[in-house]
Design goal:
The chain is of the alpha/beta class and about 400 residues long. The chain contains ten helices and 16 strands. Strand 12, helix 6 and strand 13 form a beta-alpha-beta unit. The structure holds flavin-adenine dinucleotide. The site of flavin-adenine dinucleotide (FAD) has 28 residues, from helix 7, helix 8, strand 15 and helix 10.
């Protein structure tokens, strides 16, 4: 187990007049207190007391199903849950079925009930069991509509399988939705089709704003899947997850990216750090134009758009064209000598430090952690070394 102290990116912060995030060392953030998906001051991120959506006894159910990733729902899943909560009337409850462990604040996301199936981890490929679990949940709650995010990471496939198996009506790639209708682009986006709400709604990303003016009841339901229904018929075999070199990963698919800008001069040390951390490599246009990185590494308006959970920008100023490429990243960490660089206003955490020194120190700390553990794996826990430089 990793015993190294790690920087908690959710620690409380205030925004200075320069737009910098100033972390208060020693203070711990409470659950749900921070939201790093949007810009603004710390106070604007706090959950103000919101009213309950409804206190009426439920007579109908809307079911939302989605996979969790490391205990949380991604933006697309939260949007899908929000769609159901916004459509639900006072006598309709919103039940959330989560495949995988979920530790988030389910009421804040708009759900009235949560059914968590921790056994269905994202790393496990179990389409038949998941289909059976979803069918069992539908049988138990008899929802009037089932909502899933239309993604390529499991939910879209599950929704289609369920609709086909249950002979249910379905709308895919839904980009417009209200209580009366859904609409999608069809025929290679040359036409727009609309219909009444089908049994299964597969919602496209960014169709709905997940910020809700209310909260759900947030009740956790203990629910055991009927083993007989949830087991696979053997038609699908899980061959496990194959680890690949992060450098081979398309940047658009990478969950962890270290990126170099004009402030990175020691490229071999930077590449070593990326390999140690298992991160994909990105670069700013200036670093690419200089020949330090190949064009396919460029991130930004005229490069790639990335959606990593963690994006570490070494020596990148954060020009608007670069920021365009990282707008969907979850946690941005900047290492820059200049506290007023625009990247600091976008970053969730800014280290005012020299890129080469930080990279060298991280490489050293990773090597020390590796030899202390006697393993080949190095971990980001070494980031504590930079705590003294936190702003
Ligand atoms: C039409 C158009 C399209 C563009 N498309 C893109 C694009 O897709 N992607 C993109 O990235 N850019 C793009 N650009 C360029 C963009 O405007 C910026 O010029 C570029 O992003 C700057 O790269 P940089 O931040 O690495 O370099 P600089 O602007 O030179 O900034 C370097 C940063 O590193 C810091 N620094 C310097 N030394 C150190 C050190 N030792 N340690 C730590 N920090 C240090 C500096 O304080 C500075 O903030 C585009 C521009 C145009 C006009």
């Amino acid at each position: 187990m990793n015993t190294l102290k790690r920087i908690d990116p959710r620690r409380p912060f205030t925004i200075t007049a320069d737009g910098l995030r100033r972390i208060t060392l020693g203070m711990m953030a409470s659950a749900g207190e921070m939201d790093f998906t949007a810009q603004g001051s710390a106070s604007s991120h706090r959950n103000e007391a919101k009213p309950r959506r409804t206190n009426t006894a439920p007579q109908r159910t809307l079911l939302v199903a989605a996979h969790a990733d490391r205990g949380a729902l991604d933006d697309h899943a939260r949007q899908t849950l929000a769609a159901a909560a916004l459509i639900a009337d006072a006598s309709t409850e919103v039940v959330l079925l989560v495949f995988g462990a979920f530790t988030g604040d389910v009421a804040a996301l708009g759900a009235d009930k949560l059914i968590e199936l921790p056994a269905f981890d994202r790393r496990r490929f179990a389409p038949v069991e998941e289909l059976n679990a979803l069918a069992a949940c539908v049988a138990a709650y008899a929802p009037i509509h089932v909502f899933l995010p239309d993604n390529a990471t499991g939910d879209g496939d599950l929704g289609r399988r369920y609709a086909a198996t249950a002979n249910a009506s379905v709308a895919t790639h839904v980009v417009e939705i209200d209580a009366a209708h859904v609409a999608s682009y069809i025929r290679a986006n040359t036409a727009f089709a609309s219909r009444s709400l089908p049994d299964v709604v597969l919602l496209a990303a960014n169709a709905v704003d997940p910020k809700l003016p209310f909260v759900g009841a947030g009740e956790r339901v203990t629910w055991h899947i009927d083993e007989a229904r949830a087991t696979s018929n053997g038609s699908v075999r899980d061959l496990g997850v194959e680890e690949i070199d992060a450098a081979q990963l398309a940047l658009e698919e990478a969950d962890f990216i270290v990126s170099a800008g004009n402030g990175v001069s020691d490229v071999p040390a930077f590449e070593r750090l990326a390999a140690t951390l298992g991160a994909a490599i990105g670069a700013s246009r200036v670093a690419v134009d200089d020949g330090r990185f190949t064009r396919d590494k460029q991130i930004g308006a005229t490069g790639k758009t990335v959606e990593a959970s963690v994006y570490i920008a070494f020596g990148i100023s954060g020009a608007v064209q670069h920021l365009q490429g990282i707008k969907d990243c979850r946690h941005v960490i900047a290492v820059n000598l200049d506290a007023s660089a625009p990247i600091a206003a976008r970053a969730n955490l800014t280290l005012i430090a020299d890129a080469q020194e930080t990279i060298a120190a991280l490489n050293e700390a990773a090597a020390a952690a590796r030899s202390a553990r006697g393993t080949g794996a190095a971990l980001l826990g070494s980031a504590t070394l930079a705590e003294g430089a936190l702003v």
